[in-house]
Specification:
This protein has 82 residues and is mostly helical. Helix content is 83%, strand content 0%.
């Protein structure tokens, strides 16, 4: 179990770095939209927001797997919120 936890912590650290970069891109895109009002920047902002959400969702999925929580293969997104 200790090895699984160490691997999980390593994966979370890597994911956290990706999330930080995505958050920076999200913030830049949102600021550009606020300055220019361009719809394209709003779409870009929504994309980065979706990527952030998906990233956290993957982290929670990995945590659930390490602690042997069973998640329905087809509906695992919904299972995470229960």
């Amino acid at each position: 179990m200790k090895e699984k936890l160490l691997v999980l912590l390593s994966e979370i650290e890597r994911a956290n770095h990706r999330q930080e970069r995505l958050y920076e891109k999200l913030q830049q895109s949102w600021e550009r939209h606020q300055k220019t009002g361009e719809y394209g920047y709003l779409v870009e902002t929504a994309f980065y927001l979706n990527q952030l959400y998906s990233g956290y969702e993957r982290i929670f999925y990995e945590v659930a797997g390490v602690f042997e929580n069973t998640l329905d293969a087809l509906h695992w997104h919904k299972s995470l919120s229960q």
